[in-house]
Design goal:
Number of strands: 8
Subcellular location: Cell membrane
Distance between the termini: 95 Å
Function: Endoribonuclease that initiates mRNA decay.
CATH architecture of the domain at 333-436: Orthogonal Bundle
Strand content: 5-15%
Keywords: Cell membrane, Endonuclease, Hydrolase, Membrane, Nuclease, RNA-binding, Transmembrane, Transmembrane helix
Enzyme class: hydrolase
Main location: membrane
CATH topology of the domain at 333-436: Hypothetical protein af1432
Helix content: over 70%
């Protein structure tokens, strides 16, 4: 009985153990399946998040790539346009040089024909002279014989009388010949001088496009005009205040007109508009930022223009300040004639004329390029531009002949070098070409400059811009030092001074602008 009970107890324990094992396995399997499903769900969620993040990164990279592509495309197109314009200019110069060479070859052929004709004439004259000499010897012999018979003189005595007579005749003829030779030499010298000047002008081809006071900014579509004007015109007012030009937005399709007498201001406004339109963000703060950057870039461009000019002209060793002033000539006009084009032309004329006269062509070209350097000196000076240019050339260690040629090309000082009259003549040739200069343009620009300088002479005036062909004067004052009441009085004082000191057609509107800004930084 005890054994069977013992067996039953053991069997019940084994069954309990088996049931426990089976229950544990079942519970473990359920737990493992739940964790596996949870892990799979988490993995799927991580995968989905990764796919979303990858898609966002992909979109960002695509957007960055598109922006970079557009920027590179714009830079490439700008560079291509510059190179295309340079190529077209070089092709035009080559055509002009080819035409000049053909003309020179035709002139050479004509001169060879003239020399052949002259040679034939000289040969015929020599033959005629030989015949006349033989006839004269025969006549002389006959005269000697007759003299011996008539005068009952010896041949020696007759010879002496004949020699005296011939000597007197020879002296008379020699004096006449010397006089005619001197007159012929004067005529030949004048003719040769005219010939050198004419050949110099013919061998120098130059374009004479008279600069005006407007620039045209082309746009892709007229929708951009609204952005440039801004709400209630705030953008265009900010652009005019920052650049000092007048922006004219009218019905002209796909074009905006930039008006102003100062070519540097017009160029700053044009480049600023180009950058603003490309960027798309057009508002007053952005406009001021872009104009400031553009003004700095213009200074760099001036240096680049100067360096490119001296390289094109084959001039070496110029001081960097002189190179910078040569670049500044690109944005300066004299009597409506672009000063850089005028100086380049004078340099070419000087080199050609110096070569014809056997002078130093390098010094002549150098002096021709620098002869008007005094006109672009940024500081005010009471000296004439020729004397100021000479002082600058001396300051930067230029050759004394070059310095004298610069200072004497308007007869302010005495000419001490043969190079000086060459520079003076070439300057007159360049300035006197038909259509090269326009006196009214220079007087008009000078009147606008005087108008701005008059307003700048008042205390508290920061900037001053003459716009609308001088019919309006915009004066920007310092808000910290000038009150609203004083601003009103300032416009009246400026108008009174303009009436007393200047002569002008019509009337001038004086607009005084006082803008108060408050700036703070959150850190």
């Amino acid at each position: 009985m005890s054994n069977s009970l013992y067996f039953i107890v053991i069997l019940s324990d084994i069954i309990a153990i088996g049931v426990g094992i089976f229950a544990g396995k079942y519970i473990f399997q359920r737990s493992f399946d739940a964790k596996e499903k949870e892990a799979q769900d988490r993995a799927a969620e991580i995968l989905r998040n990764a796919e979303v993040a990858a898609e966002n990164i992909k979109k960002d990279r695509i957007l960055e790539a598109k922006e970079k592509y557009l920027r590179l495309k714009s830079e490439f197109e700008d560079d291509a346009n510059k190179k295309r314009s340079i190529l077209q200019s070089n092709e035009q110069k080559l055509k002009q040089r080819e035409q000049s060479l053909n003309q020179s070859m035709e002139q050479t052929k004509r001169k060879e024909n003239e020399l052949d004709s002259l040679k034939n004439n000289l040969n015929s004259q020599l033959e005629a002279a030989t015949k006349r000499r033989e006839e004269a010897e025969k006549s002389l012999q006959q005269q000697v014989t007759q003299l011996e018979k008539i005068a009952n003189l010896t041949a020696e005595q007759a010879r002496e009388q004949l020699v005296d007579a011939l000597k007197a005749e020879a002296e008379t003829r020699a004096g006449s010949y010397i006089k005619s030779a001197m007159e012929e030499a004067r005529l030949t010298a004048t003719k040769e001088a005219k010939k050198i000047v004419i050949e110099t002008i013919q061998r120098t081809a130059a374009e004479h496009a008279i600069e005006n006071c407007v620039s045209v900014f082309n746009i892709e579509n007229d929708d951009i005009k609204g952005k440039i004007i801004g709400r209630e015109g705030r953008n265009i007012r900010a652009l005019e205040a920052a650049t000092g030009v007048e922006i004219i937005v009218d019905d002209t399709p796909e074009a905006i007109v930039i008006s102003g007498f100062d070519p540097v201001r017009r160029e700053i406004a044009r480049l600023s508009l180009h950058r603003l339109v490309q960027d798309g963000r057009i508002h007053p703060a952005r406009i001021e930022e872009v104009v400031a950057k553009t003004r700095k870039n213009i200074e760099d461009e001036i240096v680049e223009i100067g360096e490119r000019t001296v390289i094109d002209m084959g001039i070496h060793g110029l001081h960097p300040e002189l190179v910078k002033m040569i670049g500044r000539m690109r944005f300066r006009s004299s009597y409506g004639q672009n000063l850089l084009q005028h100086s380049r032309e004078v340099a070419k004329l000087c080199a050609t004329m110096a070569a014809e006269l056997g002078l130093n062509t390098k010094l002549a070209k150098r002096a021709g390029l620098l002869h008007d350097i005094g006109k672009v000196w940024p500081e005010e000076s009471d000296l004439p531009h020729a004397i100021l240019g000479m002082e600058l050339a001396k300051k930067y260690k230029e050759n004394p002949e070059v310095c004298n040629a610069i200072g004497a090309h308007h007869d302010e000082i005495e000419m001490t070098s043969i190079l000086s009259p060459v520079i003076q003549v070439c300057d007159a040739i360049s300035g006197s070409r038909p259509g090269a200069r326009r006196e009214m343009m220079e007087s008009y620009i000078q009147r606008l400059r005087d108008l701005e300088n008059l307003a700048l002479s008042f205390d508290g005036v920061e900037k001053c811009y003459a716009i609308q062909a001088g019919r309006e004067l915009r004066v920007i004052i310092d808000a910290d030092n000038v009150s609203d009441e004083k601003a009103g009085l300032l416009s009246f004082d400026i108008s009174q001074k303009i009436e007393k000191e200047m002569q002008y057609p019509g009337q001038i509107k004086i607009t005084v602008i006082r803008e108060m800004r408050s700036v703070a930084y959150a850190r």
